[in-house]
Structure prediction request, 403 residues.
Amino acid sequence: MPKFDKRTLLLGGFAVLLSACTTPGENVGTNVQTGNTGSKYYVARGTPFTPANKKGQKLVRIALLAPFNSQNSAIRAEADTLKAAADLAISENGDGSTILMPIDSGDTPSSAEIGVKHAISSGADFIMGPLFSSGVSAVAPYARANNAMMFSFSTDTQDAGRGLFVVSFLPEDEAKRIVTYAGKHGVKKLVLLVPQSKYGEKIELAATKAAARSGIKILGTARYDSTQNASVNGENAAKIAARYIAGSNRDEVAILIPERGNMLRYLAKVLSVNGASMSKTRYLGTGLWNDDSVLQDSRLLGGWFVAPDNSGRSDFETRLQVKKGKSATRLAGMGYDTAALIARLVKQGDKSAITSRSLENADGFDGVDGRFRFDDGVIERGMSVMEVSPNGAKTLEGSQKKF
Prediction:
């Protein structure tokens, strides 16, 4: 999920969206009151939202909570693209009984709470979103108290399980995949060069566990503050990382650098001039490396990194552009896969086909970014291992077709 500067968001898009789709008297039926009525998070359901052309039909309603009314144009555009992808998924995979309710959630816990209350009172059976981890924590109790299964786009897994499914790309998965692959291909020693952040902590923990399982020795960890000037903080950490590999056999030692863009290129430069170039060690990376600016840096030639299976993505990107006029983002792919999964499983407006057990199918599901499955609400994605080559990214090992 892209990082955005958080701003105060204006709520109210829900009312606008509903008024654009319905007129008075066109909603039908009454929702059965389900959930924990004794909970402070319980929300009484009113007349369910029903588009005029769906009057009288049995429907399944998906609420998409996203910052549609953000004052930040980049966030607003991301939310609109996510909605377009979810719309496309439902139209391509559903039978007409699944509808999408886009609801503004803001980017604060309080605005997310307002959004989820709107969603539940209007009949939401499933909730997609919100985008920020603080919003997910605020929304989760309402989803559980009202029996609305929830799909989160945050990389924070602390709320996963008990009806909440995390559908993001997790840094833990990426670290595990690349370190495990390295261990199978001769790497015996590993240095971690990671940012001082929650992301860095997750990478460090997952890489350490994967290294232990693969018989890889961690030589040391160098940490840097990625929010500070790279020429000061990053330089010191890279020099420390370079010292850790001194005297090691090139084919047996690697440095994991879970970074992107300018910072990644700067770290590679400092490593190279301090005795830790690719002729002395192997650089390992995460999905953050999957970027043209990175792939064109000669200092990273021969580096290994992970990336999702893109075999189905180009077709998705084309369809989203042609049918919705939107350029696909990583978040759009997550939104498409989530909405498509619900629409495929739900038939004739019967949401009972979707249970935690049916979603935690050990064989998983095929998505636009490859195969994925859930374990106690946490996603596991099949990922390919790539190498930086003179002609761009070269596939070394394809993603798992089976788990």
